[in-house]
Queue: 4 jobs
Job 1
Amino acid sequence: MADDPSGWLHVPAPAKLNLFLHITGQRDDGYHNLQTLFQFIDRCDELSFRLRDDDQLTLEPQVDGVAFEDNLIIRAARALQQIGLQQHGNLPGADIRLKKILPMGGGLGGGSSDAATTLLTLNALWQLQLSFNELADIGLRLGADVPVFVRGQAAFAEGVGEQLTPTPQLDEPWYLVVVPQVHVNTGKIFSNKCLTRDTEIINIRTALRREGNNDCQAVVSTLYPEVGKALNLLNNFSHAKLTGTGACIFSSFGSEAEAIRVSDQLPAEYVSFVAKGVNTSPAHKILFRPS
Ligand SMILES: C[C@](O)(CO)[C@H](O)COP(=O)(O)OP(=O)(O)OC[C@H]1O[C@@H](n2ccc(N)nc2=O)[C@H](O)[C@@H]1O
Ligand SMILES: Nc1ncnc2c1ncn2[C@@H]1O[C@H](COP(=O)(O)OP(=O)(O)OP(=O)(O)O)[C@@H](O)[C@H]1O
């Protein structure tokens, strides 16, 4: 593990891309059934953890606009702490530091990934020995995207995103990710009446063979014109797609140099970054690397 002499354990929380996102129906509880292909990128929030002498949880710095108890990091830690207390009777608290790199409301799953890294790391530090299945179940209650980050493998996902089939065979290209400066509200997109919810269900072989679309793209582009504008711009260079419910869009390239060349041609007001697609979560690479 990425330990340092001062006792802090440093573990990344990577972003994900939805290489396609099909909405295939809606459940009675309002949630949508979807099919999607998740891949991680090596762009990450940076979290650090240290056990305390008392039983408190702390988080520094706080995330702007998110109350301490609402932060997915604290919600994940509390959920695990409750289980740990039942198992062990008492548990030390933890200091957690967060360097927020991933844009919020960007469709990159940053909050979900922070939650998953917290579950995985505190499970190890508190020696709870919960399985990935148990951690993914806890994570699903925090958000639909948490389980894929807990399991840490690129995957074809069904249900609300929790039924995962690993896809280690995916290419690992370079991505140019454009970050329109708007915060998309996921609930607002899923409740929009113009969203199509009847895309044909496909099997994993088809999913891996053909390039799917993002069914949220049309609605997001209408509600957030900055996203539509960025899609049009990037499409001039390479096929561009929305990730999740946006706002971020991405294109894939065979090399880092090609991705950088396109990013250099974007007008200066566009925020973007280049990252590598990876089929194993960088958090897993740190926490579970052979010693
Ligand atoms: C669009 C994706 O990013 C694809 O990876 C995820 O499905 C969204 O996952 P997430 O951000 O973790 O979303 P959640 O926090 O679980 O849900 C936010 C809101 O979006 C709606 N929602 C979300 C996921 C889903 N499959 N159907 C929905 O209708 C619900 O109204 C929910 O209250
Ligand atoms: N640690 C956290 N980091 C980011 N957002 C958080 C965190 N904890 C709670 N949130 C809340 O979760 C919301 C969604 O954040 P997130 O960055 O995961 O969005 P997203 O990338 O659009 O996610 P998704 O792709 O899963 O829809 C934020 O607007 C914020 O209110």
Job 2
Amino acid sequence: MVCPTPVAVGLRDVSAVYGATTALRQVNADIPAHRVTALVGPNGSGKSTLLGVIAGVHSPASGTVRRAHDEHPALVVQRSAAPDRLPVTVRDTVAMGRWAHLGAWRRPKAADRALIDACMERLGISALASRTLGSLSGGQRQRALLAQGLAQQSDLLLLDEPAAGLDPDAQTAITDLLAEVSAGGVTVIHATHDTDAALRADHRILIGNGRIVATNADADPAAAPHPVH
Ligand SMILES: Nc1ncnc2c1ncn2[C@@H]1O[C@H](COP(=O)(O)OP(=O)(O)OP(=O)(O)O)[C@@H](O)[C@H]1O
């Protein structure tokens, strides 16, 4: 008996534009809950835009996006999109992941501080806690942004090339981390150019020129998530 996988995000006829540029064209997809989904495709194919649409930071020009999750999605952007010269420390950066959970004065409680410490520990950046982001290597900064994403404790974690620029061991560690996080009940969607990371995902979506070209569900219909009604 096939056990149906619930859908975390359902996209129907979604198109997205930047001015005159069409980045997504009539995208239809069901993203399985509590699994790792890899978005793969060449540069400029629309992966980041799709993540932005799912995160709710880029409004689709047409179509619908339905999220089953209660929490606000956590979106971890590519490091090139993060400001370089902000005088914030690694700890501050990770702590920003708690902002949505804090009151008006954004004062972290003991539990928030413990979580921030745990997220830094998980990404191996505890020793860098007092360093400013601008003083870090690209890979170290990328880990700080990932720790910030984890600190949000969202049940929908969206990551844009989380292992880009990391050394091979660190790339493997990030892929392991994503699998661990999804095993804990989080839906993970990540854009990647790393074939190993894509192959280790539970579900793959291949994008080309703003369209979905293939999913692994095409090859194995039993693996397709079952739509929610
Ligand atoms: N801010 C923007 N303004 C105008 N066009 C944009 C903008 N961002 C992306 N685009 C265009 O939208 C299309 C999809 O870009 P997107 O960044 O989603 O691709 P991608 O698959 O994530 O690429 P990469 O692998 O290089 O990160 C491309 O044609 C790109 O040039």
Job 3
Amino acid sequence: MTPSNHLEQTFAVVPAAGSGVRMGLNHPKQFHLLHGKPILAWTLERLLALPFVHGIVAVVPENAVGFVAALASSLGAGASVTVVAGGARRQDSVRAGLRALPDTCQWVVIHDGVRPMASPELFYRTYEAARQSGAAICACLAQDTVKMADSGWVQATVPRDRVWLVQTPQVFRRDLLERAFHLAQAFEWNATDDASLVERLGVRVAVVEGEKFNIKITTPEDLLWASWYLEHSPKDTAPLGRQKERP
Ligand SMILES: Nc1ccn([C@@H]2O[C@H](COP(=O)(O)OP(=O)(O)OP(=O)(O)O)[C@@H](O)[C@H]2O)c(=O)n1
Ligand SMILES: C[C@](O)(CO)[C@H](O)COP(=O)(O)O
């Protein structure tokens, strides 16, 4: 690690403390095995291979902290991954992750623990956009016709050329993110993603192109896609990739 990296360190916060109700398994979906490896391990490997990420805070259910610490060690990343307990909402878990960041961290990559298929290019693209503007997300433009409906009846057709389906990674300057989460706590803002809170500060959030395969594994059908993709996608995420030279 070079001295300049000490000045501009980037950490990833990985919310993985959900219970996976929509998946309907008897264990949290982030620990479900795909090709013999927990989904969360696939995701951590992607992040560990990014040269610009200096460390990871994994936020997990309280009773899984020890298990995930051991999992990180088994990936050869025990020293790079800090494991903390999450909260009731995703937002609470991210907040717990932010509290565990070291003082040296200035940029934060937030990535769902159950999005194991994000490519390195997607992380770079989102990170680069954030470094320009302070905040960036990735998203896919809606391809189907978009309608609003209520009680089984169409209410309106929404012009889809401005409808973006948002994913993670989402990348932020740490101070912006902390201010957003501080105000969210003070004013009881609820949000399904992190950028929504930063937007409420009046900060402009850049959008870069997401990836169709970067799904959030949510329901049992998603496991089929993920299983196929993880078997067939390029093996470019060596767990010890962190040892590569950083930019
Ligand atoms: N209290 C929570 C809820 C969610 N998450 C994490 O946020 C990501 C996206 O959430 P989601 O897919 O909704 O996961 P779950 O909350 O587990 O799913 P469900 O809503 O079906 O229970 C997941 O990695 C999940 O573990 C979290 O860290 N803490
Ligand atoms: C952050 C997110 O993955 C962006 O699409 C999504 O909003 C998480 O939502 P969930 O309700 O926690 O699944």
Job 4
Amino acid sequence: MSGMERCRVMLEAARIIREQREEIATMETINNGKSIFEARVDIDISWQCLEYYAGLAGSLAGEHIQLPGGSFGYTRREPLGVCVGIGAWNYPFQIACWKSGPALACGNAMVFKPSPFTPISVVRLAEIFTEAGVPKGLFNVVQGGAATGQFLCQHPDVAKISFTGSVPTGMKIMEMAAKGIKPVTLELGGKSPLIIFSDADLENAVKGALMANFLTQGEVCCNGTRVFVERKILDTFTKEVVKRTQKIKIGDPLLEDTRMGALINRPHLNRVQGFIKQAKEQGAEVLCGGDLYVPDDQKLKNGYYMRPCVLGNCKDDMTCVKEEIFGPVMAILPFDTEEEVVERANATKFGLAGGVFTRDIQKAHRVVAALKAGMCFINNYNVSPVELPFGGYKSSGELCVTSPGTCQLQGLRVAPGTAWSCVLTPALPCRIWQGERPGSHRVLLAAEDCLRGDG
Ligand SMILES: NC(=O)c1ccc[n+]([C@@H]2O[C@H](COP(=O)([O-])OP(=O)(O)OC[C@H]3O[C@@H](n4cnc5c(N)ncnc54)[C@H](O)[C@@H]3O)[C@@H](O)[C@H]2O)c1
């Protein structure tokens, strides 16, 4: 198909998703355990992603290069072929769209393997693609776990691998890709810093900290789980965060007013609680939560619910501060100076995201420029507009080719070693946590401000 033809099919898929938003969001809530309120946002981001890449499909073009003596050369944009997408369980439908959107827009085929913990919603996506006119066999879903993932990565007919998951699995994927000399996109874990300066709008900073820690039961790769708070406001900030955290409504994720559903499964719940136990042994103080939550509703009593936890008295070398917990656990760490906090924020193997809350705009941009992180938020957190690249530094993934931003389009000119770093600045304070739709945020992005390095 030509780019324009691909565009039309993808726009139709986006339209169907928009039309079936409620049904797919309900399916995603059952699939993953996140609140219906959040699942709707995921579905919106998914159709927006397909629309975005549909828009780019028609404009993909090669170049004509004039040579001496009247000769000329030209480049063609060609699809890679069969791309494999392997997804994590926290954003099943959205990850599948983030991977298939750019792949299909560029004329590739995709074999997608969801996590075995969230197998269903991506099957609905395959049905929608078929309904929209994607030729049979161009988007395929294969169910399975590690063995299936390995088989796909090692298959000689596979041209590229796009993976979202943990760092240890990412390493294995990269090894397998290396053996086949296959390009690979890795979107891995994080332990991101959130820096709250004493001049910040306290109300907004508190809401930002909740958004940075407790969306999707804390199972979000870019969460700002190391919350550095300037010592002057430590007590006030901590008191307010604890108060708000205790008010988060936990329970049946299909109810409209629920803000925190169930964790993905029992072993993961046990693992998260193991981190809290270890944190206590290492001297941290549980300021709230961390215990199991048993809903009154009998049919939910065996669900994997826990109360969101805030840890005080944390030190940089504690396990709960160093390792990705991937659950609703926030660690609060005091700091005194800007220089000190930047150094501590960067002292991690990860580099997915970072956030700064301050009223001083120069300080905000200075600090995010110094953070070694792929995405930085100023006075906001965890918003992911599809127009922006998404990816990390260091062990959080490789830099050159991230998704869902334009640089994931195969063949786009992103020089090896080029780092993309996005900075998001809000025009409105963080309100999503209060129940407003993300549409109420106007995301402002100034190109000169958002790119650094030679990107
Ligand atoms: N950076 C991002 O964009 C992003 C987004 C979501 C989640 N994550 C990360 O994902 C992790 C949580 O997800 P998870 O527990 O599903 O991760 P995981 O690494 O256990 O599994 C991810 C996927 O890889 C498959 N898999 C496992 N072993 C494999 C192997 N040897 N070969 C091929 N495939 C294999 C799994 O079946 C699953 O589909 C967290 O670390 C989180 O930070 C990152």
